[in-house]
Design a protein that fits this description.
Helices cover 89% and strands 0% of the residues. By secondary structure, it is mainly α.
Length: 273
């Protein structure tokens, strides 16, 4: 296994086993530790400052974190150097490959030129064939578009004819409806006029019958009044005649009595009459 891969794998296992790039500490405590480490590294004030700034950690925790951080930096630097060496090796390999390729290119230039010429001839032939096919396709496309345009025009013309017929049918129905409504209106007006005329005739006949009934009642009333007047006149005439007859009878009786008395020599008192 290459040295670079060994370093990378070792550094990766170290991170997995020790809690990642912060050694198992949270971000705030680790950043505080880094700030103190940069400021007080190698000084006696390091531990007192760390204990004051990291109240959640003991002196042993801080010492272990210092050891972890030193090993972390060492492994990280080793990984960096391994990557640098690996890049240098890759650059060397790339240079060798390029040199070999250039040599092979010089050796096969004539063959490449020949193949290039053949490829160019083939490409030119393909372009000509493609151009011919393209022109044929364009002509077919133009004919298809023309056919489609004619179809669309035919469909549009049929639709316009259909719409024209529909409009004509609608107009005809509207005219027929209007004519029917006019006829119905005329019939209704005629019927209404006939009903009004019949009603007027009926009222006229009723008025005539009422007038006739009233006239007949008036005639009957006048006849009754006349009969009553005639009966009254007859009664008066009868009473008058009876009174006259009574007076005549009384006069006759008086005259007869006077005559009788004269003949008998008696005298009649007028108080008896």
């Amino acid at each position: 296994m290459p040295l670079c891969s060994v370093c990378l794998n070792f550094f990766q296992r170290f991170l997995q086993q020790t809690g990642g790039h912060q050694g198992g500490w949270d971000d705030y405590d680790h950043q505080t530790f880094l700030r103190i480490h940069r400021t007080h590294k190698g000084k006696a004030s390091f531990m007192s400052t760390a204990l004051a700034s990291l109240p959640g950690h003991s002196e042993d925790d801080i010492m272990q974190h210092v050891q972890w951080y030193d090993e972390y930096l060492t492994l990280k630097e080793s990984r960096k150097e391994a990557i640098h060496k690996w890049k240098g090796m890759k650059e060397s390999e790339r240079a060798e490959v390029l040199a070999k390729a250039e040599a092979e290119q010089e050796e096969t230039q004539l063959d490449l030129d020949r193949k290039k010429q053949e490829r160019m001839d083939q490409e030119r032939q393909e372009r000509l064939s493609h151009l011919t096919r393209y022109k044929a396709e364009q002509e077919l496309k133009r004919l298809a578009e023309e056919e489609e345009r004619l179809k669309e025009q035919l469909i549009h013309a049929r639709q316009e004819e259909k719409q024209r017929k529909q409009k004509a049918a609608v107009k005809l129905k509207a005219e027929e409806y209007a004519r029917q409504k006019a006829e119905e209106k005329e019939i209704m007006q005629t019927a209404k006029a006939a009903v009004m005329h019949e009603e007027m005739q009926r009222k006229h006949m009723a008025n005539k019958r009422i007038d006739k009934f009233q006239e007949r009642d008036q005639v009957a009333l006048d006849e009754r009044r006349i009969r009553q007047q005639e009966r009254q006149l007859e009664e008066e005439e009868k009473s008058r005649r009876l009174d006259k007859l009574k007076g005549q009878v009384c006069l006759y009786v008086y005259m007869y009595t006077c005559f009788y008395l004269q003949t008998t020599g008696q005298q009649l008192s007028t108080r008896q009459w």
